[in-house]
Amino acid sequence: MGALSAVAPLLGVELTPVGLSEPDEIERAITTFARQPNGGLVVTTAAAAQIHRKLIISQAEKNRLPAIYPYRMFVRSGGLMAYGPDVSEEYRRAASYVDRILKGEKPGDLPVEAPTKYLLEINLNAAKTIGLTVSPSVLVRADEVIE
Length: 147
Fold this sequence. Notes:
alpha/beta
């Protein structure tokens, strides 16, 4: 949320945080938010978002609200689009850390690394359901398009 809060004013975007802890709260918050014109939902990496992903996706669809998610599992579950780190690549990189530790390096001496590979996935079925046309220039940038 910190990064989103910092960038939103620079882009002329109003940020409205929506709670995600309880199913009733999620449904109510997304429905209320969707009543405002020209809105879109940015779902963060919060554990609650992953736990309630099917509810969040269904509420976004029901309210015809464009939504972007942090992981491809959201798109595979019917969400519109995801942009986030390539989790498989992160696991491969973690394995090299395990190897280095097993060879004697101290965990505290290893650098903290940020993700280096990000993926964009778009679900055209979800776009069609909410009446959204995805620009061809966005589609060609996608790593995967679900039709």
